[in-house]
From TrEMBL:
GO BP annotations listed: microtubule-based movement
UniProt similarity note: Belongs to the TRAFAC class myosin-kinesin ATPase superfamily. Kinesin family. KIN-14 subfamily.
Protein name stated in the entry: Kinesin-like protein
Keyword Protein biosynthesis: no
Domain Kinesin motor positions: 170-519
Positions annotated to bind ATP: G260, Q261, T262, G263, S264, G265, K266, T267
Organism: Jaminaea rosea
InterPro entries from the UniProt entry: Kinesin-like_fam, Kinesin_motor_CS, Kinesin_motor_dom, Kinesin_motor_dom_sf, P-loop_NTPase
Origin: domain of life: Eukaryota
Biased composition (Basic and acidic residues): 1-11, 20-32
Length: 531
C-alpha cells in the first residue's frame, strides 16, 4: 500500500512535477505570449502610428492631389467651357455659314440661271446685231442713194425756187401801213384793204372838190405783191420775205429797201422793237423782232441745217450810213464827232462791191451780227445827237455777205443781202427844212438819192432800150449797183402812216412803190464764188 501509495505519490509527484513543468512551460509560454502580445501591441501601436502617419501623409497627398485635381478639373472645366463656347461659336458660325452657303448656293443658282438667260439674250442680240448690221449696210446703201437723190432734189429745189422768184418778178413791192400810235391821237385817213385774203390791194379815200365845187371822194387804189394792214405782225411780214433769205443762201444777191416818210415804220419793220440781247437763244427771237434779226436767225439756222447736205457757209457784215451823199462807216474806228471824216470810195469789180477802208467783220453767229448792229446803232445815235434826228435823214445799209461751198457737189456761191433803211421820203416842202440851209441840204440829198433810185429802177425796167443805167447819180444807187439790176432780187417795203395829215405823203409813197412795182428787171443770176 505504502508502495502503492508511494508509487501513487511518486506518480502524483511525478505528475505534479510534470504538471509543474507543464505549468512552468505554460507560464513561460504565457510570458512569451504576453511578451509577444506586448510586442504585438507595440507593433500594432507602431503600426497604427505608422498607419496614422501614412494616412496623414496619404491624406495630405490625397488633399494635395484633390486640390491639384480640383485645380486641374477647374482648368479642364474652364478649358472645356472655352472649348464648348468655341464649339458653340463654331456651331453657330457653321450654322450661319451653312445658311450663307445655302443662300449663296441659291444666289449662285439664280446667277447661273441669269448668266444662262443673258447668254441666251447675248446670242439673240448678236443675231439681232448681225441682222441690224446687214440691214444697216442695206440702209447705208439706200441712204447713199437717197443722199444723191436729195442733192439732186436740193439743186432742183434751188433752181425751181429761183425760177418761181423770177416768174414773180425780181423786184417785188410790199406796202405796210402801221397802226395809229396811241400817244399821237391824230385823226386817221380813210383806208380800205379790199380782198383781205389775197392781201394785194390798198385803197386810200381822199375828200376833194369837183370842178363845179361839189364835195367829192376820190379813191386811190394800188396793187402790190403784198399789202399788210395795221394788224399785221412782224412775223406776218417775215413769212412773206423769208423765201428771199433762201435765195441768198442759194447765191443770189438780195436787197431789201424800207421806203417811206419819216415815222411811217421803216425801222420798226427792219429792226423791230430792240435787237436781241447777248442772252438771245438762236432758236427764238421776240415777237417784236423785225426783219433783220429774223433774217439773220433764219440764215444761220438754214446754213447749219444745210451742213448735212455738204454745205459750209461763211458770213461777214458791214454797216454803212449815207448822209448828205457821203458814206460813213458805222463800224469804223473814226470818231463820229471828227470834222475830217474818213473818205470812203466805192469800187465795183467782177460783180462785187467794196468800200475802201470800211470795216467788214467776219460773223460766225447771230449774236455777233446783233452785236455789230448794236455797235452801229450806238454810233448812229452819237451822230444823231450832233445832227438832230440824223437817223431819219440818212440811209443805213446793212450788208451781210454769205459765201458757201459744197464739198460733195463742188458747188459754190457768194451773195450779199443788203437791208436798207432809207431816209424819210417826204417831199421837200414837207421836210421842215424851211430856211435852214443844213436841213435844205439834207432834203436835197435825200431827194436826189431817192429820185436816182427811181430812175435806176425805171431804166432797169426799160431794159436795154434805156442803154445807160444812171447808178452813178447818187451814192446810194452807186453803192447798191450790184444789189439792184439784173443780177439781184429786190424787195421794196413801203411803209405808210395811217394819219390823215400824212395822206399826201402816203399817196406819194404809194405812187413811187407803184412805179417800182411796174418794173420788170432781167433774170437774176446766181453768183458763183469764182465770179
Ligand atoms: N407796225 C407797227 N406796229 C406798232 N408800232 C409801229 C409800227 N410801225 C411803226 N411803229 C412805231 O411808229 C414809230 C415810228 O416808227 P419808225 O421809227 O420805225 O419809223 P421810221 O419810218 O423808221 O422813221 P425814221 O425815218 O425817222 O427812221 C415808232 O415808235 C414805232 O415803234
Amino acid at each position: 500500500m505504502a508502495a502503492l501509495f508511494d508509487r501513487e505519490r511518486a506518480n502524483t509527484e511525478a505528475q505534479m512535477a510534470a504538471e509543474q513543468q507543464e505549468r512552468k512551460k505554460y507560464s513561460e509560454r504565457v510570458t512569451q505570449l504576453e511578451e509577444s502580445l506586448e510586442e504585438q501591441k507595440r507593433l500594432a501601436k507602431e503600426s497604427k502610428r505608422e498607419v496614422g502617419r501614412r494616412r496623414t501623409l496619404f491624406d495630405d497627398e490625397m488633399a494635395q492631389l484633390r486640390q491639384a485635381h480640383a485645380r486641374e478639373k477647374r482648368a479642364w472645366e474652364e478649358d472645356l467651357d472655352r472649348e464648348r463656347n468655341t464649339v458653340r461659336a463654331l456651331k453657330d458660325s457653321m450654322a450661319q455659314n451653312s445658311t450663307a452657303h445655302l443662300t449663296m448656293e441659291a444666289t449662285n443658282s439664280a446667277l447661273r440661271t441669269e448668266v444662262q438667260r443673258l447668254q441666251d439674250q447675248l446670242r439673240e442680240s448678236q443675231q439681232r446685231t448681225a441682222d441690224v448690221e446687214a440691214e444697216l449696210i442695206k440702209q447705208r446703201e439706200a441712204v447713199v442713194e437717197i443722199e444723191g437723190e436729195l442733192r439732186e432734189a436740193e439743186s432742183l429745189r434751188r433752181k425751181l425756187h429761183n425760177e418761181i422768184q423770177e416768174l414773180r418778178g425780181n423786184i417785188r413791192v410790199f406796202a405796210r401801213m402801221r397802226p395809229a400810235l396811241q400817244h399821237q391821237g391824230n385823226s386817221l385817213a380813210t383806208v380800205r384793204f379790199p380782198n383781205p385774203k389775197e392781201a394785194r390791194s390798198i385803197e386810200i379815200l381822199s375828200a376833194g372838190e369837183s370842178a363845179t365845187g361839189t364835195a367829192t371822194m376820190r379813191t386811190f387804189q394800188f396793187d402790190f405783191d403784198h399789202v399788210f394792214g395795221p394788224d399785221a405782225t412782224q412775223r406776218d411780214v417775215f413769212d412773206e420775205v423769208q423765201h428771199l433769205m433762201q435765195s441768198v443762201l442759194d447765191g443770189y444777191n438780195t436787197c431789201v429797201f424800207a421806203y417811206g416818210q419819216t415815222g411811217s415804220g421803216k425801222t420798226h419793220t427792219l429792226e423791230g422793237s430792240g435787237l436781241p440781247t447777248a442772252n438771245y437763244e438762236a432758236s427764238s427771237v421776240s415777237e417784236g423782232a423785225g426783219l433783220i434779226p429774223r433774217a439773220v436767225q433764219m440764215l444761220f439756222a438754214t446754213a447749219e441745217a444745210l451742213k448735212d447736205k455738204g454745205w459750209s457757209y461763211d458770213f461777214s457784215g458791214s454797216m454803212l450810213e449815207i448822209y448828205n451823199e457821203t458814206i460813213n462807216d458805222l463800224l469804223g474806228k473814226a470818231d463820229p464827232k471828227s470834222t475830217t471824216p474818213v473818205k470812203h470810195e466805192i469800187q465795183h469789180e467782177k460783180g462785187r462791191t467794196t468800200v475802201s477802208d470800211a470795216v467788214v467783220l467776219p460773223l460766225s453767229s447771230p449774236q455777233q451780227v446783233f452785236a455789230l448792229l448794236s455797235r452801229a446803232s450806238a454810233r448812229r445815235s452819237v451822230a444823231a445827237t450832233l445832227m438832230n434826228e440824223r437817223s431819219s435823214r440818212s440811209h443805213s445799209v446793212f450788208t451781210l455777205r454769205v459765201r458757201g461751198s459744197n464739198s460733195t457737189t463742188m458747188e459754190s456761191c457768194d451773195a450779199t443781202l443788203s437791208l436798207v433803211d432809207l431816209a424819210g421820203s417826204e417831199r421837200l416842202a414837207n421836210s421842215g427844212s424851211g430856211d435852214d440851209p443844213r436841213r435844205l441840204k439834207e432834203a436835197v440829198s435825200i431827194n436826189k438819192s431817192l429820185s436816182s433810185l427811181a430812175d435806176v429802177i425805171a431804166a432797169l425796167g426799160q431794159g436795154k432800150a434805156a442803154g445807160h443805167v444812171p447808178y452813178r447819180n447818187s451814192t446810194l444807187t452807186w453803192l447798191l449797183k450790184n444789189s439792184l439790176g439784173g443780177n439781184s432780187k429786190t424787195l421794196m417795203l413801203t411803209s405808210l402812216s395811217p394819219v390823215a395829215e400824212h395822206l399826201g405823203e402816203t399817196v406819194a409813197s404809194l405812187r413811187f412803190a407803184k412805179l417800182v412795182n411796174g418794173t420788170i428787171i432781167g433774170t437774176a443770176k446766181k453768183v458763183r464764188a469764182s465770179e
